[in-house]
Amino acid sequence: MRRQDLERLARAYGVQPVYRDWHGRRVRVPADTLMAILETLDVPGIPGGSGEAGASGGTGKPGARATNAPSDPRSDPRSDPRPGPRPGPRLAAGPAGSNPGSVRPEPDESRVWSGSSTRGTRLAAGDRAWGFAVQLYSVRSRESWGHGDLRDLAELASWSARELRAGFVLVNPLHAAEPAPPVSPSPYLPMTRRYVSPLYLRVEDIPEYALLAGADRERIGRLAAPLRERNSTGALIDRDAVWAAKRAALELIYRVPLGPDRRAAFDRFRRREGDALADWATWCALAEAHGPDWRKWPRGLDRPRSDAVAQERDRRGRSMEFHAWLQWLLVGQLADAQSAALAAGMPIGLICDLAVGAHPGGADSWAYQDVLAAGMSTGAPPDEFNQLGQDWAQPPWHPRRLADAGYRPLRELMAASLEHAGGLRVDHVMGLFRLWWVPAGRTPDRGAYVRYDHHATLGLLTAAAARSGALAIGEDLGTVEPSVRRFLARHGVLGTSMLWFERNRDGTPKPAAAWRRDCLATVGTHDMPPAASFLTGEHVSLRAQLGLLTRPEDTERLDAAAAVAAWRDMLAGMGLLPAAAAGGSPDIAEMTAALYGFLARTPARLISVSLADAVGDRRPQNMPGTSDEYPNWRLPLTDSDGRAVLLEDLAACPGVEAAARAVLPVAD
């Protein structure tokens, strides 16, 4: 097929044959990549394409309309669609006495609005809010089992609200991993996005724990003891050890009969969750027997509605009930954490995080395989910080099949994510518009963008937020079409602005007044090194050691030093650093606080303070592009010297006080 015809066919099916890279250069997608993607999209005329996509007239000719392509010009973000009937609520200022901080419907959206909510997100007119951003597993207390849990979250929220006037706590995805070791560490590559990891349970907070015999409680104490000893060290988090101990303790508690009221509540939970919970519990039971990758299971178990799976459900009823019971407990403890946050005065409370996708062998990929694109992985093309591109090893939604399913899996996922939260951060929100697909066996730079009907996908998010009275936040960092950000803003979805990326065309820092208002402002993210690492240039050395640079290390180091110098001069000029600091080397903790003071001077609606930055942690939680080369997602919260920082230590930590003081004007 001629390249011209291939590109025309690709565009007809929502595949971009050309894109601009992080340098602004036009890049043509390799022909074999386009062919592989079109085959997956069932395009007629492509080897392997079934024709199910239903090109107009069934001809498969270039220019024939495809059902997954934009339905009209407004469906293409590049066309910058003007406001019309909108699929969901928007966050907008209202008349005096109204509540502009809450998500509320416009007149044409009343069909999705359910009135006021008790879940939070009630900012007074004109106010702004700040809060800590945390990787919860890394935030341990003296009583946690070597891994941060929902009690720790509740206490962090309560303390920061009462003592520091924080308005929210932003947490990493709490999605569930494998039900048996080895437990994958990444919160962004879960087995399911619908349910929560039992690693976050506080065992002693389960009501039936109090009913245990003394010997069983002593046994649980012995299980917890070695894990609690690790809390005081900077040793890596050992999820396998944590889960082995918690699983043993939970099995003991599970044997305690539920009282009538508790049994009735559990039964109601199971009925409410329906097939979604049954499928998760079934997958867990089968994974314990056959391993956590359904693609390697015995024949017949690969389809959730098969006769073989039905027989296994009958055989493994106890195991299924156990895993359903865990989710019921988790919902209760998550609700308690949100209640504690609101009771302490937070207007928002918990902001949860929704990962882009799930593991290809996991429960979601098993249950939703009919609406996923097999043989494809989501990722990102090369950019300034990830110069080799990224492959996230997650199958993307198949645009047409998802639409044919009425978007039910995505709608239910968003609703569940907001059930006990005042906000939802959607990681890589551009994925609601387009996703970078990487065909199996190819490197991340040999992918292509595939478009989705963003009117539908974004509408699901805004409708779910409206029903919950919650904020919707999109992580729109990196290479983003300006029209995408305009579209998000018009529909009430806050964007994300990161200090290191907010620069003028000449590379100089963007002035505070030039930042956008409708965003969550932050210094860095979980995929970026902590502030201390940036300010010292350690991140360049680390990336060089890991083989993640495509430019000479000296060039990277000079550019990094120039960026820090530019920020240092700007902060000094604003009075956030002593004038003597300009051209010098200020104290790292002092400059970190100044960076957050800068964020407070922007018009941003929300400001998140990385708890890792506040305590002086120097190690990145994640280095994209690595797996075993770096201990991603396994680092506990530590200070600049690598000493463990526990929840009880935060009140006496100078960096925490300094960061909070720097952003407190946001709460005034």
Explain the overall architecture.
With 668 residues, the protein is α/β, with parallel strands linked by helices. Helix content is 36%, strand content 10%. It is built from 19 helices and 17 strands. It has helices at residues 3-12, 31-40, 150-164, 214-230, 239-254, 260-290, 307-315, 317-343, 363-367, 399-404, 408-417, 454-468, 482-490, 531-536, 538-545, 553-573, 588-600, 611-615, 654-663; strands spanning 15-16, 18-20, 26-28, 129-134, 168-171, 175-176, 192-196, 349-354, 376-380, 390-391, 423-426, 434-439, 448-451, 471-474, 495-498, 519-522, 606-610. The strands form four sheets. The chain has an eight-stranded parallel sheet with strand order 14-11-8-5-4-17-16-15. Strands 1-13-12-9-10 form a five-stranded antiparallel sheet. A two-stranded antiparallel ribbon has the order 2-3.
